[in-house]
From TrEMBL:
The chain crosses the membrane at residues 7-25, 37-56, 68-86, 92-110, 130-150, 156-177, 204-226, 238-257, 269-287, 293-312, 333-352, 358-376. It comes from Candidatus Zambryskibacteria bacterium RIFCSPHIGHO2_01_FULL_49_18. Keywords: Cell membrane, Membrane, Transmembrane, Transmembrane helix. Its main location: membrane. This is Major facilitator superfamily (MFS) profile domain-containing protein.
Length: 380
């Protein structure tokens, strides 16, 4: 467990960075572009991210995870600084695409570190700790945003986000120099969609994960546009709402991981999580601007999402080992794929319906994820 500490520290600071920016990027880009163009920019960033994942196993074999993690951190920092200094739509779009393309590659690098040091019998527990730290950082980000936000001036948020990556960059350099002589590289498998498709349980949990990531994609892009742009919530209010909304990820994932290892297995908790998410989404289009009502509805939806997140992660990692980076890359492609699906859903919905109808469409996708969860063969 001690060997995981550097990865855990990096994950905390990286997640604070991500949490500060996750719900402001669409609004920031919306200051330069209409909503449909914002969706297209998210699509482009996700497409580049998917390309990086497709080549990830080869890159890791050639350069090593230590060197690549440093490069990904450096590129992400440049993206955040570019957003802070953006004076035109073009510069803002380019900086955002750089930031969004590389930040998930850092999490992928951390995944490999953690998997290499995680025995199968403690996978749920270690993943629970890991995701508690990640989600604690993400939950803390909106609180920092609420403290530094001044109306619609988001430059301080991007500068803070860049500063938060200094510690991860230093730690990644320490890891690289500590392990560079000699580095014993594990040979990483390439992507194999055929193997992924044949493994029924891995396929089902991946589709459940895709439904979850599509939920995240829609909520990250369109919930701020709706709550801030349509209903009129201030960022000081939204920072508090989002921070409280994210608490289930901090509180539930560690004990849920333990329960998945020892008592219930993943299938039941995953199904309950999807049910909670779907019901809350069906309620959202009917809500007016009411601070506490939105806080409670979003909180319950994230109770469901937290259960789905840790159970999909725990189930998946019980089915692979550290050499299966090709299968892992496919699993991690689901994050940008979910953002792409979310952005596409938004483009189509905005063209045909009012923006709040997106929540109805998303509920259908969430219930599809629930169906896939019910197909799983439980681990207990």
């Amino acid at each position: 467990m001690l060997r995981l500490i550097p990865a855990f520290i990096i994950s905390i600071f990286l997640s604070l960075n991500f949490g500060v920016l996750i719900y402001v990027n669409s609004t920031f880009l919306g200051g330069f572009f209409p909503q449909n163009i914002v969706s297209i920019i998210f699509l482009l960033a996700s497409a580049i991210n998917i390309l990086l994942f497709l080549f990830a196993p080869k890159l890791f074999n050639k350069f090593g995870k230590e060197r690549l993690m440093f490069l990904y951190l450096f590129a992400t920092t440049l993206g955040a600084l570019g957003l802070a200094s953006a004076g035109s739509g073009l510069s803002a779009a380019i900086a955002f695409i750089i930031y969004e393309s590389f930040i998930f590659m850092i999490y992928y690098s951390l995944d490999i570190f953690v998997e290499e040091e995680s025995p199968d019998k403690h996978t749920g527990e270690i993943r629970g700790i890991y995701y508690t730290l990640i989600n604690g950082g993400i939950a803390g980000g909106p609180l920092l945003l609420a403290l530094i936000s001044a109306n619609d001036n988001l430059k301080p948020a991007y500068l803070l986000a860049a500063a938060l990556l200094v510690v991860p960059i230093i730690l990644s350099l320490m890891i690289f120099f500590r392990r560079s002589a000699p580095i014993v590289r594990r040979e990483h498998s390439g992507l194999s969609w055929r193997i992924w498709w044949k493994k029924r349980n891995i396929r089902a949990v991946s589709l459940a994960k895709l439904a979850l990531e599509t939920f995240y994609g829609v909520m990250v892009i369109y919930a701020p546009l709706y709550l801030h742009g349509e209903l009129g919530f201030e960022w000081s209010e939204l920072g508090i709402i989002f921070a409280i909304m994210l608490l289930p990820f901090v509180i539930l994932e560690w004990p849920a991981g333990e329960l998945a290892d020892r008592f219930w297995g993943e299938k039941e908790m995953m199904s309950v999580g999807f049910f909670l998410m779907g019901v809350m989404l069906l309620v959202m289009p009917f809500l007016s601007k009411a601070f506490f009502t939105w806080m409670i509805i979003l909180l319950v939806s994230r109770v469901g999402a937290a259960l789905v997140e840790i159970t999909t992660e725990s189930y998946f990692f019980k089915k692979i080992d550290a050499s299966d980076t090709g299968i892992l890359a496919i699993f991690r492609i689901l994050r940008p794929a979910g953002i792409m699906f979310g952005a596409a859903i938004g483009v189509l919905s905005i063209n045909f319906f009012s923006i709040e109808k997106i929540f109805f469409v998303l509920a259908l996708i969430v219930f599809f994820g629930m169906r896939e969860a019910l197909y799983l063969r439980d681990t207990l």
